[in-house]
Design brief:
This protein is α/β, with parallel strands linked by helices. Helix content is 39%, strand content 18%. The strands form 2 sheets. The chain has a 5-stranded parallel beta sheet, with helices on both faces.
Length: 280
């Protein structure tokens, strides 16, 4: 008789080693770019067999957001994933992920979901947590890779996976950027040519702020100036630009040691909302 105290040992005892290879999962909403493909590469460094998912999740969009207009490029996405060496692509229908009568959602409570993105899009993290839980349960992969571009989302998913004992290791992968610094995003396709020229100022303001904090400047004053810089560059408004602890997004009292902070921002350029973050 086995007597075990860890979840991993319990699963091995009940199921045995399900397979000789390690499995990885990369959830996406499609409209893939080099940033997504970098997640596939990161997963390949951690696992032997990789699945990607393509699913535009309706529950993370509020009324008036871009659910119906979100870019869809399935044929090109499948070709890119095959070329990248992805082994499986899961492209479920909405009815598969949310069967008739679905009544269960996942909520991550506390400050992690009630600030920054959570304050401006209060519906968002409940939709993300629910669909990612479903995808992790469906795939039962050993590891799942998410981009650091959506840094708060990454921290929420880490918390959720740990709290629910899902057994999948969550790995963050660095943000991929264009040569001018703009973080790659499917929503960048919404930008007009003139807006695309302005967009890199978001990253420039964040990196300038990071340098100032590292040099000893007050983070509160630095973020106020960075917000003004973004608006002066041509952004319509700034939802937030804030300095937080990288570990849990708590508000620190003063500057943290270099690398332990995070600067996060969301700003509107025309009708497009861009988000970005940098280590600080």
């Amino acid at each position: 008789m086995d007597i075990v105290s860890s979840i991993q040992d319990l699963r091995v005892s009940l199921l045995g080693r399900r397979q000789a290879h390690r499995t990885g999962l990369v959830p996406t909403m499609g409209a893939l770019h080099d940033g997504h493909l970098s997640l596939i590469a990161a997963a390949q460094r951690e696992a032997d067999r990789i699945a990607a998912t393509i699913f535009v999740n309706p529950t993370q969009f509020a009324a008036g957001e871009d659910f119906t207009s979100y870019p869809k490029t399935l044929d090109a996405d499948l070709e890119a994933l095959e070329h990248a060496g992805c082994d499986v692509v899961f492209v479920p229908a909405v009815e598969t992920m949310y069967p008739t009568g679905s009544a269960t959602t996942v909520t991550v409570n506390g400050p992690l979901t009630q600030t920054l993105e959570g304050a401006h899009r209060p519906h968002f993290f409940g939709g993300v947590a629910t669909v990612v839980t479903k995808l992790l349960a469906a795939a039962q992969a050993d590891v799942a890779v998410f981009g650091e571009k959506d840094y708060q989302q990454l921290k929420v998913i880490e918390r959720m996976a740990a709290d629910l004992l899902l057994g999948t290791e969550i790995i963050g992968a660095p943000t991929v950027r264009a040569k001018d610094g703009l973080a790659l995003s499917s929503r960048n396709t919404y930008l007009s040519p003139s807006e695309r020229d302005i967009a890199p100022h978001l990253y420039r303001a964040l990196t300038s702020a990071t340098d100032a904090i590292a040099a000893g400047a007050d983070p509160r004053l630095v973020t106020e100036q960075a917000t003004k810089d973004i608006q002066s560059a041509g952004f319509a408004s700034v939802d937030y630009l804030d300095y937080r602890a990288a570990k849990d997004l708590a508000q620190p009292q003063g500057a943290l040691p270099v690398g332990q902070g995070r600067l996060l921002a969301a700003a509107w350029l025309g009708t497009t909302r861009l988000i970005d973050n940098v280590s600080a």
